[in-house]
Design goal:
126 residues; 18% helix; alpha+beta; lipoyl; OB fold (Dihydrolipoamide Acetyltransferase, E2P); 3-stranded antiparallel β-sheet
Length: 126
């Protein structure tokens, strides 16, 4: 199981990479492996605001649909348009080209509510 050390994780299996005040968000390797092949990703449009732990979209696998939970509060500033054509990037490259959205982080203190790679590995027994 791949759990990069430079990311923060939610207990709901989303990750965030923080660069300056921008957060790139996706689902974890653990989550995509549990869901199976992703056939569709429903992500919000640019301009929407979400609070930490709020549902911001969903992913559809062959047998199930799973909600996506916001790891940090923020405003959506970019969506990954590649996922419209290739939703399986979430499976093959969950921490690279399979990212979902980028946000402008509203409250950086919320990072304290997230898990480190080591804590997330313990949560998933990876």
């Amino acid at each position: 199981m791949n759990i990069p050390n430079d990311l923060y994780f939610s207990k709901e299996h989303t990750w965030v990479r923080i660069e300056n005040n921008i957060g790139t968000i996706g689902i974890t390797d653990f989550a995509q492996s549990e869901l199976g092949e992703i056939v569709y990703a429903d992500v919000p449009n640019v301009g929407y605001n979400f609070k930490q732990d709020e549902v911001f979209g969903s992913v559809e696998a062959i047998k199930t649909v799973s909600d996506l939970f916001m790891p940090l509060s923020g405003k959506v500033i970019e969506t990954n348009k590649l996922l419209l054509k290739e939703p399986t990037l979430v499976n093959s490259e969950p921490f690279a080209n399979g990212w979902m959205i980028k946000i402008e982080i509203e409250n950086s203190q919320e990072i304290e509510n997230l898990l480190t790679a080591e804590q997330y590995a313990n949560l998933t027994n990876s």
